[in-house]
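Researcher: Here's the sequence for the chain we discussed earlier.
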Amino acid sequence: MKVLKFGGSSLASAATIKEAASLIQNQKENKNIIVLSAFEGMTNALVEIAECLYKKNSAGAEEIIDCLDIKFSKLISELFTTGEYKCLAEESLKKHFSIIRSFTKDLFTMFEEKAILAQGELFTSSILVLLLKEQQVKVVLIPALDFMRTDKNSEPDPFYIKERLHKQLDKHPDVDVYITQGYICRNAFGEIDNLERGGSDFSASLIGAAVDAEEIQIWTDSAEMQNNDPHCVEHTFPIRHLHFEEAAELAYFGAGILHPSRILPADLNMIPVRLLNILHPDSPGTLISNRPEKGKIKAVAAKDGITAIKIKSGRMLLAYGFLRKVFEIFENYRTAIDMVVTSEVGVSVTIDQTTHLTEILNDLKKYGTVSVDQNMTIICVVGDLDWDNLGFESKAVQALKDLRVRMISYGGSNNNISFLIQTEDRQRALQALSNNLF
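Model: Thanks. This is the structure I predict for it:
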């Protein structure tokens, strides 16, 4: 069994929705589970409706609802070819939009916002089920609200999910395709809730873990993941395979990829995740798995908007507790640190959140002389960089020999070596690394 997740961008028009239906049909012999996001733009519109209702602007909410109603009425007319299923789809549209309109009549609450947002996935899944039924596919809808739940800490409850999901699947042994919703869930109190942005990927990963899936496929309309930034580097090429840890490093440093926390259940259960493009369905995409490729450098990525802070202090020499005091300052202001390098008399760190920069600098001055460099960029080289992989460090450093490098970080991970440079040198650095490493 595979789990196929279709994001909103892959459900953006009648053409891409029909392509998604075709892809589902082509794999139906595996009894796959299909996880759906809301149609593209629907969640954003529902957020706007909720914001209008918070402001007691019922007229504004009604106007957005009317526009959505017209948009999806047109979509239904483009999707369905038979009168029977077109009528059923229009009834579904009326049902879900009646629910949304009902919130404009009474006092609006936070709980009701989650219920409004859920209508995007609920409506989308109802339409896909009807479309597949029209095409003679044996399909059934298994509502996510019947099995997807978070606990009192707002974390997914994997034991509950697995037990309830299998009960749903066992009710329908003769179907080829199971359709469910991503993103939405119930909380520990039974209220409608959600897994926040990116939650459909999370749903797919949790479902894949619950059924011990052969593979999880994430379908979008995004271009294939490249080994470098194709907007400013020549001769980039698609990445066909990444280890989960390599994917996590690239995601952290700005590459367009799944957030590592969203695919953690797949990682922990050793289920491969494949990123695919619905506009190029024959492409193999990018496979993320626990299989390493020894000694191979995979990609280069860049993270802009970095600020470097150096704290220099003679008191640091042989002084235990110094680093703890420095890091506690950043913790007090809820500011994450990206890179850290130390010497006998100082420590340099980088941050990308400068909301409390003034306060942080004032507190750091208690412990030594502080200097700041802004408009910096972290360049990271990602791959299997174990210390048995001889010579890769020299290749990376040699590539940047004509550039000013402020910091180098290596050893915290076997999958990443990072360089801090001025942002004005970003393009030159990426191209130089690409030329030297690939």
